[in-house]
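FW: tagging you since you asked about this chain on Friday. Here's the raw sequence from the shared folder, copied in full. Didn't touch anything.
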Amino acid sequence: MAQITGSTPPLIDTPYFVDTHCHFDFPPFSGEEAASLASAAQANVRQLIIPAVSAAYFPRVLALAERYPPLFAALGMHPLYIAEHQEADLATLASYLANKPEKVVAVGEMGLDLYMEEPQFPRQLALLQAQLKLAKQHDLPVILHSRRAHDPLAAALRKVALPRTGVVHGFAGSLAQAQAFIRLGYYIGVGGTITYERAQKTRKVMAALPLSALLLETDAPDMPLAGFQGQPNRPERAAHVFTALCELRSEAPQEIAVHLLENSQRLFQLPPSQ
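HL: got it, structure written out here
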């Protein structure tokens, strides 16, 4: 099985943060992109990956990534929108990927969700498998949504054996489930859940996993952090997630920051921030 390498990254004097999961094409960022990116940069969040949730949003996600150097795009179809996705959307995704836009760094957001009402699981699974096939065909990593579906998702990933693997974003499962994904070569997305004292299970998981398997994210404007309840989440708050992670880990903050950056660059083949 594929393994995430645990080699020590080269020393980076001033590591910065990459928000590997930010829905920057939605309000409150729409029309305020430059100001929002400036706020993120002030918090040392210098690159963001925008995962699309449906084919209708591919043009705007790609346009944002092409307009702003800190932004990168992922194109995919989210399981929560299963009732809206059409068969033709897969052909649309295939067409976009065939054109190989420079700023597209992943396929996603895709995945499985068994928490939603009327999950239509067979349709979800078929859509996931089709997107995984496209990711493999175009040698791209994947950004995965998984809610109450870690085991069937791991089974689907095991079958397809992607060379570039991907990330299970906003992970809130068990340590054993996280380790199963890591054994397959996948990364685990660390988000705002760990800022809540009550989220002891997730906090313990993120404290126990190898640094070589972790990525930083916000899922903005969703998943508000502790202390910001009722407010849209924002990419600059990736710095707050990092602080919370440092409080849970035994390593020095510099080492944690270096690993998070190196992991992001390795998985998504991101260029250094300018």
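FW: The beta strands are 17-19, 45-51, 71-75, 104-113, 142-147, 166-168, 187-190, 214-216.
HL: agreed, and The chain has nine helices and eight strands.
FW: great, closing this out.
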